[in-house]
Amino acid sequence: FREGPPPPGPPPLGGAPPPPGAPMGPSLKKKNIPQPSNPLKSFNWVKLAENKLEGTVWTEVDDVKVFKILDLEDIEKTFSAYQRQQDFFMNNNTKQKETEDDSLSSKKVKELSVIDGRRAQNCNILLSRLKLSNEEIKRAILTMDEQEDLPKDMLEQLLKFVPEKSDVDLLEEHKHELDRMAKADRFLYEMSRINHYQQRLQSLYFKKKFAERIGEVKPKVEALTKASKEVLQSRSLKQLLEVVLAFGNYMNKGQRGNAYGFKVSSLNKIGDTKSSIDKNITLLHYLITILEKKYPKVALFQEDLSNIPEAAKVNMTELEKDINNLRSGLKNVESELEFQKNRPQESGDKFVSVVSQFITVASFSFSDVEDSLQEAKDLFCRAVKHFGEDAGKMQPDEFFGIFDQFLQSFSEAKQENENIRRRKEEEERRAKMEAQLKEQRERERKARKAKENGEEDGEFDDLVSALRSGEVFDKDLSKMKRNRKRINSQVTENSRERPVTKLNF
Q: Which of 6, 164, 204, 312 is the most exposed place for a label (fewest CB within 10 A)?
């Protein structure tokens, strides 16, 4: 098709973008899109409103030039509106719930016990697993566990058995009977004697878990940053959108057509449009074939988006909650440090020295994560706006989830295309072998027929020779035939060494 000169007004998409503040929407000229000779199936996309185009990737693409490359007749044939068939597939993800049942048992003791029976029982179980004396536990807490006696999971359990005021009041009444106290009671009493026991325990637990929590947050922030950069910078992705836009404008009519952009969620509707020739072939399969032939680099666009799958797992609400928990936990430890600095230090108490060093390192590490998160948020916001989406409503797991789903569908359709090609090659190879076998059998049949004709001619020559020599009147005519066969056999063997033209007997 030929495109006439553009009318006065804003330049066509693909040329220079309109200057800032230039009017958008109604002032955009109607595209010169070639029209199919017969109705085609619709590509169920969602058009991007023209007033949302400014500053997006859609001002940089020109689908009109794609029509010069596409085989429009083939598109018409493959996606004719007639004989429409639709298949719907649903993948049900099943979630498994794991439950763990612990049967707890404890010995009945005759010692003095004033705390709740169930609480005492659970506390005894914890202490039996910990395998440390009260004095060893106390030393580990005061030294901030410099000997690594308290694993993180045990600290978490210890936090569940912090002496409550009611426990302390009861135990204080019986402190003169300390030797008779049950194991759980004695433990709670001695821990209550440690100044700020609960705050120390919480600080120690936070210190031990800090590196692990930072390690969980950092990859999410990095994935968000890298994935945002990938979708912003990928030239192959931009060209892919250009080709899809051309397909949609060629196949869609009326209000659905003449689009300048589409919602990114429309990418996952490409596979809904089925071929009218083969119900197993979708617009996505066809698109991949076209990309591999016409745009081989674009067909490898997945290589540009390696961080999309991880970014699709990032829930911003949960990520910010994790960051806030780290921030508040760090502040609590800092507050406890200030408190401990302003009171006399007991012998063996290393809280101030250990925690001071930890706060210095942890504050720097957390500040780095905070800065990275802010950068990731800014980049993500840019990426969402770049594709004409609402940055206030679109979350990372939804936005990158769209691309992740498309990448998976693209890979699956690509593999299915490869399987179809292999099956076709195998069928062609089998057909070729069958044709060769048929041809060989035909040659063998002709050879057998020629051999039979050759033996008949030999017998006739024998009769003529016998008539001339008079042997025909001999009684032993069969002997002559046997001699003929024997000679023929010798001739066949000799013919392998040198050519024999004719023998007359």
A: 6
Q: What is the pLDDT of residue 120?
A: 87
Residue pLDDT, tens place only, 132-174: 999 999 999 999 998 889 999 999 999 998 988 888 888 888 8
pLDDT at residue 470 tops 50: yes
Q: For residues 369 and 214, is the Cβ–Cβ distance under 8 A?
A: yes
Cα distances (Å, whole numbers) of residue 65 to 14, 33, 47, 452: 9, 10, 20, 70
Q: At what angle do helices 197-233 and 396-469 cross, to 10 degrees?
A: 50
For residue range 271-329, list pLDDT tens digits in order: 999 999 888 899 999 999 999 999 999 999 999 999 999 999 999 999 999 999 999 99
Residue 108 and residue 266: Cα distance in Å, rounded? 67
* pTM given for the model: 0.70
SS3 (DSSP) at 224: helix
How far, rounded to the nearest angstrom, does the alpha carbon of residue 198 sit from its chain's CA centroid? 44
As a dihedral over the C-alpha atoms of residue 219, residue 225, residue 227, residue 229, rounded to 10 degrees, the angle is -150
Instruction: Give the Cα-Cα-Cα angle 317, 319, 321 (nearest 5 degrees).
Output: 70
What tokens does 251 get?
A: 């196949």
Phi, psi of 35 (to 5 degrees): -105, 130
Residues β-bridged to residue 504: none
Cβ-based neighbour number of residue 440 at 10 Å = 10
Per the rule left: phi > 0, alpha: psi between -120 and 50, beta: everything else, 468 is: alpha
Residue in the block written with tokens 């004095």: 135
pLDDT digits (tens, 9 = 90+) for 354-386: 999 999 999 999 999 999 999 999 999 999 999
Nearest to 7 by CA among 33, 29, 35: 29
What average pLDDT score do residues 334-349 get?
Answer: 90
Q: Which residues contact 225 (CB under 8 A, 6 or more apart)?
A: 372, 375, 376, 379
Contact 149, 204 (CB under 8 A): no
Lookup: tokens for 454: 């050759």
Question: Alpha carbon 13 to chain centroid distance?
Answer: 33
Cβ-Cβ contacts under 8 Å for 429 (sequence gap 6 or more): none
Nearest CA among 18, 22, 14, 141 for reference residue 65: 14
Would you say the C-alpha torsion 495, 500, 504, 505 has a positive or negative sign?
negative
User: Residue 201: how many CA atoms within 13 Å on its side-chain side?
Assistant: 20
Q: How high does pLDDT run on average in the chain?
A: 82
CB-based contact 406:241 (threshold 8 Å): no
Instruction: Compute the residue count for the chain.
Output: 505
